[in-house]
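Protein Entry — a single chain follows
Next Lines — sequence and tokenised fold
***
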Amino acid sequence: MERVPVLSPNGKPLMPTKPSRARRWLKEGKAKIVHNDLNVFCIQLLVEPSGDEQQPIALGLDPGKKFTGIGVQSAKFTLFMAHLILPFSDVTKKMSGRLILRRARRGRRINRKIAFYKRAHHQKRFDNRKQNKLPPSIRANKEMELRVAKELVRLFPVTRITYEYVKAKGDKGFSPVMVGQKVMLQWLEKIAPTSVQEGWQTSILRQQLRLSKDKKNKEKQSPETHAHDGVALAASNFMRFLEFHTANTRGHRWVGEVIITSAPFRVIARPNLFRRQLHFENPVKDVPGNRKRKGGTVTPFGLRSGDLVKAEKAGKVYIGWVGGYTQTAKTKNVSVYDHSWHRLGQFSPSKVQLIKRSTRLCVAS
């Protein structure tokens, strides 16, 4: 049975409760519903709790290049599962486009008819060859994982975070997943005690817990692809594969017990927003010298990119996120996208109703 997160009157996370008890507290006026960025049903007590004893609750993070699995687990209940769609590909594409445009601008600025030493080359302002910075695509991945972890720590009294540490095997190349691991662990340490575990250990425990694993299609938005690994990482805080010796035998055995239950599952992505630019890269063909507007987050219809809205067209209702707009002499439309940032359609502004302002997260059940 699923559990409902509970907050104290001052906002401190308490042990989750049964849905029936949460409904009773709401009916008796002892609690109220509070909203959060992960769209998890949560209540906050309006009276002082009878006790604040807490049991260990662990958060498991299984990082990847394009997808990350997250699980929150106690000894007796699975509390939350998530499948994160990371912005790696989107950020890489934007940075590549920026690189091409910057090189083109440099080429146009240089006068090649004069001597090389007289040309207006852009001089270096600092040594950009020795940096300790994270690449933008990796930083975007890690910051999104950290953002979701912080939201979960606000909902559940997490006592430990377990992070899967990736190591290169043999002569295989360096993986983007390995970049920024140490920085990520430093960030996680600031919100809860953090430990690491290797992938083969996660695999063994996942099989022991009889959690299925889909290795054929990693893009599939289901618990079997990545979230179950997050649950196994969290469950490692309650079970150990320890060595034993007796007079006649020796080997390894599982010590401890954890119960896997049903839990809320969320698919979380980041809206694919574009920075405001004055125009597209290329002029419009039919109107020489004129360039279309591009990017930005504000629309002239009272909506912002990333806002959760309800839109209607031809008698059918859609729920999605604002991703852009069109405003010409003939057409006024708002573009609405799903959580995977595939466009659901273009709608008249009068048929688009705001549900929730942008949180920079797109969350779907």
DSSP finds six helices and 18 strands in the chain. The chain has a mean pLDDT of 88.
